[in-house]
Amino acid sequence: MTHHFPALTEAQKKELHETALRIVSTGKGILAADESVGSMAKRLAQVGVENTEENRRQYRQILFSADDRINSCIGGVIFFHETLYQHSDNGVPFVKMIKDKGILVGIKVDKGVVPLAGTCGETTTQGLDGLSERSAQYRKDGAVFAKWRCVLKISDTNPSNLAITENANVLARYSSICQQHGIVPIIEPEILPDGDHDLKRCQYVTEKVLAAVYKAMSDHHVYLEGTLLKPNMVTAGHACPTKYSPEEVAMATITALRHTVPPAVTGVAFLSGGQNEEEASVHLNAINNCPLPKPWTLTFSFGRALQASALRAWRGHKENEKAATEQFIKRAEVNSLACLGKYTGGDNYGETGQRIYGSCYAY
Q1: pLDDT tens digits for range 262-285
Q2: CB 289 within 8 A of CB 339
Q3: Is the C-alpha dihedral spanning 123, 227, 77, 127 positive or negative?
Q4: Contact yes or no for 346/97 (Cβ under 8 A)
Q5: Which residues belong to the active site?
Q6: Which of 97, 251, 324, 337 is most buried, by CB atoms within 10 Å?
Q7: What pLDDT digit, counting tens, does each position of 115-128 carry?
């Protein structure tokens, strides 16, 4: 029972750790550009753009053509399968465009959420079948890290023990497979902000979920130094009548991590969870200024919170591309400062007009 058969060589461990460190090096975070075709349909519809492969390519090109200013802000970009094999207008592969900036390429490898029978609307995530072969191919095609998202919900009865255990084991199995192929796994157990739960309830659930995740990582012999965690920030549900300060969110978030996440984990890259761009940046800044000891790099892995302004600026018009790219660069720079606890903006903090949250977000 206690025999140990090493899962990775020392050389493999060294490579994984170095890759993880590069992704979250000082002031750098992750651009999550891995929205599925279905998710892109919702995003593009918001600005009146048809969801075609060409329009998706054009939009990703706006982000990937950002100049050298993002090189000090973005350490990694998560691709969707389709995007990994697309090219710019000039025929340059997107993967090459990103690598030439010194930014690492990642890939979303899960295949979406499916219902978990016998629960009250809970889910697990599919995609383990064939993951080993896909990981080997993605590694050849330039990806050095991956992402897998599990989703949990808070209610009076959720998340159930079954959902917590099942999703923790799926994340651990995915992580183990990725590491065998030299790919750093990003572990994303997202607790949705649906509901009217308060900050304390979210912290409690976050701790229970993360404790289960890291027990599963241990059971599956996952090398923690060669992983990154992508958790939700600890926030109240969107329908909660009580509004909490950024400092309260930061304290609850760091406390939850300190209770559950081993110091060996190389970095924590928070998801934005439907917060508007300003809220996500202000909260990240407060987290990095929290007075509690923090043994991990604390950064961002944002999708909508890096892209919403760029998408609104573009609206599918070629003449708007440069302005849209500038909006993306601005958000990247803001969040880079927030990683360092040096962001002094926040003028629009708490405005609900630009909230980018969708209930029960799945992709």
Answers
A1: 999 999 999 999 899 999 999 999
A2: no
A3: negative
A4: no
A5: 188, 230
A6: 324
A7: 999 999 999 999 99
